Amino acid sequence: MVWVHRESLPSVGAMTDVLSTLLTVNGERLWDSLMELAEIGAYSDEATGLTGVDRQSLTDADAAGRRLVIEWMTAAGLDVTIDEMGSLFGRREGSEPGLAPVLAGSHIDSVATAGAFDGCLGVLGALEVVRSLNDAGITTRRPIVVTAWTEEEGVRFGTDMLGSAVAAGRLTLDYAYDLVDEQGLRFGDELVRIGFRGDRPVRLDPPHAYVECHIEQGPVLAEQGYDVGVVTGVQAISWQKVTVHGRAAHAGTTPTELRADAGLAAAQIVVKLREMVDSGAYGRLRATVGHLRTSPGLPSVVPDRAELTVDLRNPDDAHMAEAEADLAAFLTTLPGTQPGLRVETRRMAKTTHVPFDEGVQDVIAAACADLGHDTMRLMSGAGHDAQEMAAITPTAMVFVRGEYDGISHNPREYSTPEACTAGINVLATTVLRLANH
Amino acid sequence: MVWVHRESLPSVGAMTDVLSTLLTVNGERLWDSLMELAEIGAYSDEATGLTGVDRQSLTDADAAGRRLVIEWMTAAGLDVTIDEMGSLFGRREGSEPGLAPVLAGSHIDSVATAGAFDGCLGVLGALEVVRSLNDAGITTRRPIVVTAWTEEEGVRFGTDMLGSAVAAGRLTLDYAYDLVDEQGLRFGDELVRIGFRGDRPVRLDPPHAYVECHIEQGPVLAEQGYDVGVVTGVQAISWQKVTVHGRAAHAGTTPTELRADAGLAAAQIVVKLREMVDSGAYGRLRATVGHLRTSPGLPSVVPDRAELTVDLRNPDDAHMAEAEADLAAFLTTLPGTQPGLRVETRRMAKTTHVPFDEGVQDVIAAACADLGHDTMRLMSGAGHDAQEMAAITPTAMVFVRGEYDGISHNPREYSTPEACTAGINVLATTVLRLANH
Predict the structure, then answer these.
(1) ipTM > 0.85?
(2) pLDDT averaged over chain A?
(3) Any alpha helices (H) in B179-291, and if so which ranges?
(4) Do B296 and A383 touch (CB under 8 A)?
(5) Domain spanning B237-351: which CATH class is it, in words?
(6) How confident is the model at residue B18 (pLDDT cuts 50, 70, 90)?
(7) Signal peptide location in the record (chains A, B) (predicted)?
(8) What is the domain partition of chain A in residue ranges?
(9) Please, are residues A46 and B243 in contact by the beta-carbon 8 Å criterion?
């Protein structure tokens, strides 16, 4: 296998010979597939009163979703293989099978409070591209591979982009297998349990290009009035777990000045992060504490322990480094305010800003124009499997606008059938052009 | 049954006839009993590296603790009955059985991270008083009843002083039976499951007096150099559960100004409470958020829900009312800072300042003096079963000094054998004098 680093990747180069082709898909079939997959892991969401999706990685629901996707891949004539991480690959042969294939895909695992679109649009969209190629009787020069990566969300085993990161060689198989979830269940064991530890070698031969269509998960496209966008890259992302150790004590009798209240320190971290965001000193920093829990968690006991996760995002690596350094400095001040406190941090994930390939971006932009879609270029706020693929192959993404301020990781997540069809038409035309390149 | 309200209670009155008697106990036997009971529910505490006690109410450990106490009561010749709330009563007959008895006791249920002393000293101390009366061949005029109340801590079913509150008539049996724990298990069902739903009617005939010995759970006695203290009353206590409803959203893509972050609001409440305490505007206010948890609790999802408990204490009812009102006002401002937030509060417990009977306080103070212990009067920061008994009978408490700043609800909780013996000698002399009154 040739191992190529991003720095030395050739771009896809001039493609004037294939730029005249167009491919449009069956939007109704795409929508029906999205809705059918969303039934797997469906739950009734108390907060919104809507039906949400909970299909976390390597659960029974995830396995059922995978089986449905494989059934659809097989029905579309794809040759399905499963790698050692459980990621799915459905290959449509090209007229020159020896050429590196074009990969298109995303993921079908979800967070605990998800909608129907995040990840699924990219997988089922790529499947719809293949179905439409079949309908049109088109054979491409290069093979096309539809991919569904394992554990993109990272919510169950704590590391996101897991399947694509191991495929791209950033993380090892052993690292992934030894991850454990909150219940202490091991990734490797759960993968075997659901029957999806495949035998395809996990390190991926660099494909010709990788293209991923995804919902924007933000408000920008809707604000600007576009259905689709060309993604220029992914902002820097940092995940840490912070554990504050204090001292359990009686709530009624322990004088305030003698307390080492782990919960108070955790709350101060949350408030400090919002102050950092609001200060504007760190550019377009976003900070989120999604998980916060005190122990022992009793009304009359000062917490002796608090655990929280800190998710920082920044399109600028220098601003991100400043934010991380200032947060770390703040954490060191906490024991001074409450003697006896101890603060531990553990890095869960960290990626710098990943720029996407300008050649692939141009192919996507041209497809938009040829299909009559006004568009814009924008950076992704969320991490995606594409950022892992970008290390080994020319890569870019298509974004589809979301409604309701682009809310995502929430049952209210919604993109219209028109926007989804537009995005997958762009994906189809892009994949067709790259595969004939 | 005669039902007497605290306002109209007669004090115990002049007792010059019995003030010359003294009773001292077997401190070694008391200590051995404390250590033996502490083995039930023992666990290895990670935070301190010590062995702690987790004997929460109506668990199997609580049942085992109850069986040991009953075995010891029976061995001491007591007639044991169990009331409809599971509270234990061990009666030592007096020479005039028709007279109202003197009650002495406390509780053996614990928080999840407890030590060996909280509650247990009062129950096993009262048992040691009876054992010592037996050793000395003393028969008192009035009966003496050793009591162990059910669910004093309130950590499992959310209402503290539960057994004594129902016995005193402040809460109903139905209210208690229908309480559920975090797992949805019902108090009434758990009481039956552990075999401790007794048939003694729960409403208690007012005894002659109630005396409870307890560790101070604070630093005052140690700071002043006393082993024992006379408790003048219990400060006001307020428990609320606050639930913040926000909106789940993607951590990387949702602009900060569009978020309704329930976790941030919860953190702001915690920080605000500490500011209120530090302001000095609410007298000797103590505020504790022991339980704080965000949902769904994932690193990349803005929390749509946060739950926290607020424990407020104040020796002054007016200051307590001001603190509660100002907290409530602060909660109403939160949706203004993050549109879409909703804040719910539920009252878990509320007691005003409970003053103890001055006559019983004087009997305790005289016992201290006659036994050669310097002492002081102080108010209790923690709630105790004595505050419920104070509604139906002349009541006061003996405090025993704690080491390490009086830390409690923690495996480091410790009182010396000397201090425990001193406290129970005071309890013994007080009970003997009251029972001969």
Answers:
(1) no
(2) 94
(3) 187-193, 220-224, 262-279
(4) no
(5) alpha beta
(6) low
(7) none
(8) 6-235+354-435, 237-351
(9) no
Q: Do A218 and B383 touch (CB under 8 A)?
A: no
Contacts of B222 in chain A (CB under 8 A): none
Q: Which residue of B has its CA nearest to A219?
A: B254
Residue A323 tokens read as: 């934010």
Rounded CA separation A221/A367 (Å): 17
- Answer yes or no: is pLDDT of A155 > 60: yes
- Contact partners, residue A4, CB within 8 Å, separation at least 6: A206, A392, A393
DSSP B8: G
Quickly count: other Cβ atoms within 10 Å of residue A185's Cβ.
15
- Which of A245, A255, A277 lies at the smallest CB-CB distance from B47? A245
- Using 50, 70 and 90 to split pLDDT, how confident is the model at A13? low
Residue of B nearest to A118 (CA): B250
The model's confidence at residue A10, banded by pLDDT at 50, 70 and 90, is low
CATH number for domain A6-235+354-435, candidates 3.40.50.300, 1.10.10.200, 3.20.20.10, 3.40.630.10: 3.40.630.10
Nearest-angstrom CA–CA distance, B106 and B153: 11
The whole-angstrom separation of Cα B349 and Cα B310 is: 10
**Which positions in chain B touch A309 (Cβ < 8 Å)?**
298-299
DSSP state, B102? E
Q: Are strands A209-215 and A395-400 parallel, antiparallel or unpaired?
A: parallel
B184 vs B178: CA distance, rounded Å: 10
Query: Using CB atoms, which residue from A299, A304, A348 is nearest to B348?
Result: A299
Residue B394 has pLDDT above 70, yes or no: yes
Report d(CA B143, CA A252) in Å as an integer: 34
Asked whether the beta carbons of residue A408 and residue B253 sit closer than 8 angstroms, the reply is: yes
Residue B47 is nearest to which of A304, A381, A406, comparing CB atoms?
A304
Q: Report the C-alpha gap between B156 and B181 in whole angstroms.
A: 6
3-state helix, strand, coil in chain B (%, to 5): 35, 25, 40
In chain A, residues with a C-beta closer than 8 Å to the C-beta of B162 are none
| DSSP three-state, residue A207 | coil
Residue numbers of B between 128 and 187 with CB closer than 8 Å to A: 153-155, 158, 160
Q: Over 60: is that where the pLDDT of A5 sits?
A: no
Nearest to B426 by CA among B395, B386, B399: B399
Q: Which residues of B touch A382 (CB under 8 A)?
A: 250, 252-253, 300
Tell me: domain B6-234+354-435, CATH 3.40.630.10, correct?
yes
d(CA A286, CA A266) in angstroms, rounded, equals 18
